[in-house]
Design goal:
Blueprint: E1 2-10, H1 13-42, H2 50-61, H3 74-96, E2 117-122, E3 128-129, E4 135-137, E5 141-146, E6 157-162, E7 168-175, E8 187-192, E9 198-200, E10 205-206, H4 211-214, H5 216-228, H6 234-268, E11 271-275, H7 279-283, H8 288-294, H9 296-309, E12 313-317, E13 343-345, E14 352-354, H10 355-375, H11 388-391
Helix pairs in contact: 1-3, 5-6, 6-9
The protein binds zinc ion.
Length: 398
């Protein structure tokens, strides 16, 4: 499987200039190709394929207006075209239903004001990690890297990114062999929520890291400082970078927390099931801050790739299943409950439930159903939960 390994880059002044030029050229090529495809669409021609767009790029490089494109690595420009083709493919696949998840819109023009600028070098661009640890990038130079961990094998590509805080990163794509862990009997259902970051079906509750809240005061200060600076002034630019850095710090701490928890869960369990939350829906409510704070989607992605890497099962069950309304002991649907109800008693079997733990148990049971269905052992039942013996075997009498 393919993994990304990211490191901080420290380009010197000349290299930063060369990178800025390369970001700009990649952007121009991307936008030219997008305009070309839009124009073809407008006059009713068929979608121009990659070869046609690539030929268009070659032609434009010989015109005086686009001669500057020759100053950067040709691979960088080809990769910008590849990005656009991928963006179109995502749009087409999303529209035809081939691609699941949030609907993907048409590609949009890139701007120099975008928060993130990036270029990509593939292996045939001849980028190289030198014996002295520097990264050789064609037409950029030998850039200093902070190697925080070793690359397992030679990378197939590297993306160079400049974020809004003005930091540079190299993100390498590396092919790694899967390393399955010894099989374990344990499985885990996970309810991701707002009162706790995660609640497991065995009753374990992982507190939400209120990192953003703790840092909120600091963020408020830097934001206030920014708003007092005059538009377009040097001081305003400095204040903007301070704001971006404060945000980056919180993001780092959050990522660290997600890494530790996801690794632990994947190591300890043969299968992990989570409920896919409608994060976008929640983000529009007054809970937006907590949703942003929790950053579930990044965490779920980590669970997914780590499961693949370590030979575990990762399952997602849909939000449409009423996991917080159904008794995990007897399977009877008890009706909707407002978020304020943290504990309830099943009217049918009398079991007293912690709202989140009950939901996590239902998620675990659903995960097992999905797994059976995937193996074709039985026809998928309509919404129905496992009887208590099955759902609770690993917890015994507890
Ligand atoms: Zn019950």
């Amino acid at each position: 499987m393919q993994l990304r390994y990211s490191y901080r880059l420290y380009p010197d002044a000349g290299q930063r200039q060369a990178l800025a030029r390369a970001f700009g050229c990649a952007r121009v090529v991307y936008n030219d190709a997008l305009a070309y495809r839009q124009a073809a669409y407008k006059v009713g021609e068929k979608y121009p394929g990659d070869a046609e767009v690539s030929a268009m790029l070659t032609r434009s490089k010989s015109t005086p207006e686009r001669a500057f494109l020759n100053e950067v690595s040709a691979v960088v420009l080809q990769q910008a075209l590849a990005d656009l083709s991928q963006a179109y493919k995502n749009f087409f696949d999303s529209r035809s239903g081939k691609r699941k998840g949030q609907p993907v819109g048409l590609p949009r023009f890139r701007s120099r004001k975008d928060a993130e600028q990036s270029i990509r070098f593939t292996a045939n661009a001849n980028f190289k990690i030198r014996p002295d640890g520097k990264l050789r990038l064609p037409k950029i130079g030998h850039v200093e890297v902070r190697w925080t961990r070793e690359l397992p094998t030679a990378p197939s590509s590297v993306t160079v990114i400049r974020d809004s805080a003005g930091r540079y990163f190299a993100s390498f794509v590396v092919k790694v062999a899967e390393r399955p862990l010894p099989i374990t009997e344990r499985e885990c259902g996970l309810d991701l929520g707002l009162t706790h970051f995660a609640v497991m079906d065995d009753g374990t509750k992982v507190a939400a890291p209120r990192l953003l809240r703790k840092a909120a005061k600091k963020l408020r200060n830097v934001h206030r400082a920014l708003s007092r600076k005059q538009k377009g002034s040097r001081n305003r630019e400095k204040a903007r970078v301070k704001v971006a850095r404060a945000h980056a710090k919180v993001a780092n701490a959050r990522r660290d927390f997600h890494h530790k928890l996801s690794t632990r869960l994947i190591r300890e369990n043969q299968a992990v099931t989570v409920e896919t939350l409608s994060v976008k829906g929640l983000a529009r409510t007054r809970l937006a801050k907590s949703v942003h704070d929790a950053g579930w989607s990044g965490f779920v992605n980590m669970l997914e790739y780590k499961a693949e890497l370590y030979g575990r099962d990762f399952r997602k069950v849909g939000r449409f299943e009423p996991t917080s309304q159904t008794c995990s002991a007897c399977g009877v649907k008890d009706g909707p409950k407002p978020l304020s109800v943290r504990e309830w008693q099943c009217k049918t079997c009398g079991t007293v439930h912690d709202r989140d733990v009950n939901a996590a148990r239902n998620i675990a049971a659903l995960g097992r159903r999905e797994a059976l269905y995937a193996r074709g052992d039985q026809v998928r039942p309509a919404w129905m939960l496992a009887p208590v013996g099955e759902a609770g075997s690993r917890r015994g009498a507890g």
